[in-house]
Amino acid sequence: MGYYQAERRGGRLRFPAAFFGGDYNPEQWMGDKNWREIWQEDMRLMCKAGVNLVSLGIFSWAALQPAEDRFTFEWLDDILEMLAEQQIEVCLGTATAAQPAWLSAAYPDVLPVDEKGMRHKPGVRLNYCPTNEDFRRLGQDLVRRLAERYGDHRALRLWHVSNEYGPTCYCEHCAMRFRDWLKLRYGRLEELNRCWITAIWSRTYTDWEQVQPPSSIGEYSLPALQIDYQRFLSDMNLEGYLGEVAILREVTPHVPVMTNFHGLTRYIDYFAWAPHQDIISWDSYPRHNATPDMAAFHYDLMRSLKPRQPWLLLEQTPSQVQWHQENPLKRPGVMRLQSYQALAHGSNSVMFFQWRQARGGREMYHGAIVSHAGHEHTRVFQEVAQLGAELKLFESALLETHMQARVALMMSWPNWWTVENRHTPSRYFNYIAELQHYYRALWQRNIAVDIISPDQSLDSYQLVIAPLLNMVSEEQGAAIEQYVKEGGTFLTTYFSGMVDENHRAWLGGYPGPLRRTLGIWVEEFDPLPLGTTNTLFCLQETDDWRGSYSCEQWCDIVHLEGAQALAVFGQDFYAGRPAITEFHHGLGQSFYVATRPDAAGLDMLLNMLQSRLGLSAPLLVPPGVEVTCREGRLTTYFLLNHLPETQMIMLPEPMRDVLTRRVYEQEIQLPPLGVAILIPAY
Amino acid sequence: MGYYQAERRGGRLRFPAAFFGGDYNPEQWMGDKNWREIWQEDMRLMCKAGVNLVSLGIFSWAALQPAEDRFTFEWLDDILEMLAEQQIEVCLGTATAAQPAWLSAAYPDVLPVDEKGMRHKPGVRLNYCPTNEDFRRLGQDLVRRLAERYGDHRALRLWHVSNEYGPTCYCEHCAMRFRDWLKLRYGRLEELNRCWITAIWSRTYTDWEQVQPPSSIGEYSLPALQIDYQRFLSDMNLEGYLGEVAILREVTPHVPVMTNFHGLTRYIDYFAWAPHQDIISWDSYPRHNATPDMAAFHYDLMRSLKPRQPWLLLEQTPSQVQWHQENPLKRPGVMRLQSYQALAHGSNSVMFFQWRQARGGREMYHGAIVSHAGHEHTRVFQEVAQLGAELKLFESALLETHMQARVALMMSWPNWWTVENRHTPSRYFNYIAELQHYYRALWQRNIAVDIISPDQSLDSYQLVIAPLLNMVSEEQGAAIEQYVKEGGTFLTTYFSGMVDENHRAWLGGYPGPLRRTLGIWVEEFDPLPLGTTNTLFCLQETDDWRGSYSCEQWCDIVHLEGAQALAVFGQDFYAGRPAITEFHHGLGQSFYVATRPDAAGLDMLLNMLQSRLGLSAPLLVPPGVEVTCREGRLTTYFLLNHLPETQMIMLPEPMRDVLTRRVYEQEIQLPPLGVAILIPAY
Amino acid sequence: MGYYQAERRGGRLRFPAAFFGGDYNPEQWMGDKNWREIWQEDMRLMCKAGVNLVSLGIFSWAALQPAEDRFTFEWLDDILEMLAEQQIEVCLGTATAAQPAWLSAAYPDVLPVDEKGMRHKPGVRLNYCPTNEDFRRLGQDLVRRLAERYGDHRALRLWHVSNEYGPTCYCEHCAMRFRDWLKLRYGRLEELNRCWITAIWSRTYTDWEQVQPPSSIGEYSLPALQIDYQRFLSDMNLEGYLGEVAILREVTPHVPVMTNFHGLTRYIDYFAWAPHQDIISWDSYPRHNATPDMAAFHYDLMRSLKPRQPWLLLEQTPSQVQWHQENPLKRPGVMRLQSYQALAHGSNSVMFFQWRQARGGREMYHGAIVSHAGHEHTRVFQEVAQLGAELKLFESALLETHMQARVALMMSWPNWWTVENRHTPSRYFNYIAELQHYYRALWQRNIAVDIISPDQSLDSYQLVIAPLLNMVSEEQGAAIEQYVKEGGTFLTTYFSGMVDENHRAWLGGYPGPLRRTLGIWVEEFDPLPLGTTNTLFCLQETDDWRGSYSCEQWCDIVHLEGAQALAVFGQDFYAGRPAITEFHHGLGQSFYVATRPDAAGLDMLLNMLQSRLGLSAPLLVPPGVEVTCREGRLTTYFLLNHLPETQMIMLPEPMRDVLTRRVYEQEIQLPPLGVAILIPAY
């Protein structure tokens, strides 16, 4: 499928202990008179906090190369020595996330061009064209020097390529590269015209040079072009990443390489990038009012990107951020709970942005372990240091684990671009929110979930849920059918199976290549106005399948072609028509949800699936308590109380809490925001 | 008044039957392997649906001319033959609504420039500068070839020039043409300075070259310039249209010519364009939550553009559109009801966009007669085919009718631009909504309404209503006075009679040239903040003139100069001052409404006018039932039930329903969404 | 501190009477056939209205210089003569607020460039680059001709330079001037890098040419750059102003010079401009729903800009404006009340925009003394004329007064830019609203307030209130400490003392240089989400310090370092921590308010301060009545009733009302919107 097929194997991280630390930018302080003392104070405080890893040099290009022909590595030599003396290891940045001012001035084409054709001006970060040759040449030159100078340094643990990728550009050079990319994908221009159906509105291309990137003041109405351009942008960023990676793997084959993901970057297809990471790392910045399942969703996605391997929580704020409209403090205990939640979902690290609060710039009010006050006598420092001390209790056996879910949630970046492109019949689609709607229902039941791409094997799953799977290729449809025929359970929803991988509508009847698997035909769809709802009525009620529920967003008009209705709509001219269907196909079964049920309806649906498939939580816990299990030499249970009241959990056998070393025979009480990490007691 | 004075007479359409069909884009399917079968299937299904006219070739430029020096008419030859064999006629597009990619590449100046000076990029449709010479030359060359090749084809019924006009541009060439346009309008630069009052803010032009189009980053504060530029844009689009029309009339003088209007295009002055259409056609896309009077308003406008002639409903969706935030389905029966409503207001056709649903592009989810499923076994196809069968019952005698209203609603594009220009005392003006406010009050009473321009003769009307007539020329004011003096009834509202045709304030006292006709002087006006209301109190209460009503938006402070107050304001420092006035002038009378009454107040006002003037509905019907009358050899009544309950209508004489052929002696029952088309039974 | 240090002394205005009149633009009417009669009618009506001063020629550049080499002063000669004959004096504009069309055409670089790099097009006003040399050269040439021609004209009273300054630009020339400005401020590039902390994100400048203005598509993340650019823009506008002023002072040293401020222009630092004005003048356009304290706030700011001198109310509308979303009329009496409120706060004039309503253009619906009706028989004209007659009663003794407050509110433009820059921890900061929140609490108690800059002497004040004083330099902090030590009372709030004058965070503990003065350390801050509140509980309750109050926006976590808590927070994890503190330092005291109390809480705080410091109103009046005192040879009390009911005020001694000449022995009744101006009766 992808542009970059091969998975390169790099070094693999071992975990004698959990990583603990954060981003460290000592060069920001070299303008201060007393910067040497500040650096010394950093060392003292890092030891005090229990830091064992820092991310260094992420934005140091200008500090390392103040002119094209001049390099100043000496300060980095010094700080690496100072860290090494404290046994603090380094995740070393390639420093290419922000080019120096001299570079933008000497090579103005490095600056990206927006979709209207306006070239950016110098400044900020990630402000470069992802295909620019000069940027790549100069960046790679720096990377080679860093690798050669520090490849054998005793402090070096991990390479950190660039930072939070995501530049976009629409310049002439990108347009030229895009055409080459399209030639690879489509071969002949006639094939591109056929796939994009350019005959509509007379847009047939008769020369490759006529193909331009999408633009809001040009071609904005071809979903296929838009989706291909998103694919292209992800690939071009990946190409830039791989350019640096190739050098690092050549010069330092023993050192693992990665770049840090953050949020869910629309422009970067994580599934396509994951094979090229030696370890997955992620920057976690949940909104102050995000529910805990939202962090869990992201953590599970990171975990799933490299199955059976740990990942790294590389950044989070110890207290607050500064970039939202409102940036309240994390309340006492929240940072600790969120950190353990990451471990509970497979992370082997707790890292922060950043070590010392910046004195200026955009992020000067972003929380840090060491605040502007400059000392350790703050609530935040104390909470961090306490956590650092606790993490020392994590032995290697607790970290060499894996997690395998029996349930998968299917997600895909091209499908995201498709579902949210501006020409769909409803402008209210929010693909990630829909995934999280289903994820939340599973999370509340403490059912472990992998988040997988439609191109991955489904063999190891009992249940695969694929909400809003609008884009389905012939091959993907066949693989899903094969999975069901062999005994799997597959669930999908409205607006699925409607377009192929080139965004051409499936003809002959929706849901296209899923139609036979689901045993239905969707004749029509009715996107509901905001605020309008319909009702779902369960048919053939049983104990775990009953009631009526509100639904919204969309109603399909479904014909049964072998499937049977589990629920029907209650209103409108399609009252009584199927709303949820079930179909037995081969050894397996499939479900279709023709609307968006409310949370209670979804809970009932999951309840039914859970009891049919025998899915269970690791431990039985009260609502609001999260429990996960990491399997390895020791089976480790993570218990997290997200509620403001103490919760009691019954234990099936005596267990020991890793943090307190106490043994609990029958039950354990978790205080508000409390955490327990339990292993078999005997 | 206008830039293009002459009305060219073209061919006139005859109607042996109502047209039924839709947009047909067979070239979209030529990329498919089995496109020949698809075309054959189209023919079969068209016959099944009762299609007798298709709009063909609207966006086929690239398919007809893949390079500047290469033409490929063969496919069009074929499809025209296939259609002709089925006795399906063709409304043939000139294919100039979207230029091919090669054209934009070869002539980059064809692309329009926005008001900030940024040139568009290629793509989408209607994406050209309306004054560009190369676009016109190449387009006209194609038109000539089409006319010469197909002018005598037996399938050709009607020319369809371009599609839904409306391009705007602010390029250097437009600026140059604008200056020429201004020279024609104003003669000398001194006269332009005088009319635009450029002495304000030192903007006096001393050379024609200094005159630039309006721009939000330039001259955005001269309403006169903005309004003239809107006039200019409408004229330049018309000039482009006439360029194609001239060729068609030269080569095929026997074939009628038109372009299709849609919605209410701000940039296109329909009144100025109408004389150059051989028949008016319109694309109807009411919002899902639009009330039925809104469609009626548009239908009546289309009907009024060419008095005493039928018009064509050229596009509507059979099910749903895809371009709004929310695009619910038309419920069963709604499409039929809306189609008959068009006929009830003078249309002689029911056409759809489009025949076969597109497989890609922006409109791929737009409803079509033949959906992606590709066959006739769908609700939508069945409803369309049923309607097609019904329409066969319409004989020529039912179609050769006219409609003449006794009431006119005055509307003007320059006045629209004026009322909604951004420098008025209230930013809450919505000219069309205000017209529809008055229209609705008439529609609810089933009083037939013409919608006319201030430049048309008023002689045939008992009552002329001109809401928000802000811009009134000396001549228009005189014509209105003459109309009243000779016995007419004229009603206007607040914010009227304030500027002349060049947007210069009328001095000496508002409402300027209407002051003598109305017998009032408006000393001050008080634009009300949103949410603020005042109250209207009726004076000299009678049975059909009584009560108090809420009003909003604006209150004038009116002095009576001969008029008398019919209602007064209830609050604020102008409590007790006239809110509605009446004046007897010559043989007629005039009314002034100094505020925006709520719906109940407006209903009372119309009630009073109706009883005074003896205006009546064609039949007496319950509220929610619409009734219109088409006069001709047969008097035909259209009854439309917009309610979800069955309605009973008493008949003054026995009548036959054209659709069912049943005779009703005294009464007829209309089911929900039901329609009856009644002619005298004997 | 400032870029322009020297205060030039110009002529000083004397006030034999209050100025009364308005903007007069006779050249707008020279396009009319009967313009001579209109001018004559203007003279008659001005005398009728009591006009004694008009602002003339503000936008007359094109009328005075229709081509670069041609001047047409004759019409101005004429109108000056006509005015002089009527004993009407002139505030003569330099006509440079809007350049003629020929100038923009001949010198296209005169047009400003926006922050994205897009150059404006010609048109509107204030549409020039503030550093452009051609604009300045041509403008100064015109100014010299005006000064030489009219400097000795008997009608000339005052020079009015440009109008409502505020152009911004980001062109290459501005960038070059900005670099020079930065060199003056920082000396070496290394110092700029150190102060802006450019090491963050690798933005270190290695050549001055790399420094660019801020841009939303370039460097938008450096608050220090943004704030310096705002300083620069204010300085460049001032430089342009001073260029004209220098000529006027050279040619006409006897004539006072000023430009008119309006609203609170973000781009113009009024404190930096005030020393270069011979008199402060202001254009007053309160929103229709503004409370009277908001006008008072602005009036007091104008008064404070030149201590102990009167200022001029140069513009206000007699009825309504046209530029808001909603533009209701000023109700009868409101214009009079607002005019006297200006006099009550130190103005010696009541002037209007404008004399005669414009016939076209953006402001054609803006209210005027003479409306489009063109005569005096209107409510508005009558109210104006009545006021003009009243003002004749103001003798010189009433105008030669001063006002000195004992309370100061601290305000600063750089602090405004800082508090509202987009990278603060809360996007809900509204600096002016916060100042007005405190101002309102004082105003409601009729406590006179000066509004001062942090760089002014604090010696004459008992109480200094400095809300949101985020930016505090070392020197400012020291001055405040010195003031408190010597006995002053200082109050500041949350988000204060956090950055220095270059926007670098204060290290070591907030509030930086105010920490010792306040006796506290702010460890953390918690920006509250919108709609979230906390509670303030007063400690050690007394009669004038008790209760609990809601607070919002922000809560600091405060450590007491000598201070004591006056109130504590009621909720969240910092419940019980100090919310308001008090500290005795030297002979004085300081207060810190760690949140935003609601109006009741602020009133309680002011109540406590008032009783402690013995602050009193000039007279005891009921709530809703405003009272001020102008001191001079006569002590004059202004009583203003802002309520719709009559109010009774008890007098401490018999007083005479200047307007009615009546003597009141013990009490006076003020009707709704009524005014009394009282002097000692005997």
TrEMBL record, chains A, B, C:
Protein residues bound to substrate: 125, 163, 323
Gene Ontology cellular component terms for the protein in this record: beta-galactosidase complex
Record-annotated Glycoside hydrolase family 42 N-terminal domain positions: 23-392
Stored Pfam families: Glyco_hydro_42, Glyco_hydro_42C, Glyco_hydro_42M
Claim: Metal-binding is one of the keywords in the record: yes
Matching InterPro entries: Beta_galactosidase_C, Beta_galactosidase_Trimer, Class_I_gatase-like, GH, Glyco_hydro_42, Glyco_hydro_42_N, Glyco_hydro_b
GO biological process: galactose metabolic process
Keywords: Glycosidase, Hydrolase, Metal-binding, Zinc
Record field: catalytic activity: Hydrolysis of terminal non-reducing beta-D-galactose residues in beta-D-galactosides
Matching Gene3D superfamilies: 3.40.50.880, Glycosidases, Golgi alpha-mannosidase II
MF GO annotations: beta-galactosidase activity; metal ion binding
N-terminal signal peptide: none
Beta-galactosidase C-terminal domain residues: 624-678
EC number: 3.2.1.23
Domain Beta-galactosidase trimerisation: 405-615
Annotated family: Belongs to the glycosyl hydrolase 42 family.
Protein name: Beta-galactosidase
Organism whose genome encodes this protein: Dictyobacter aurantiacus
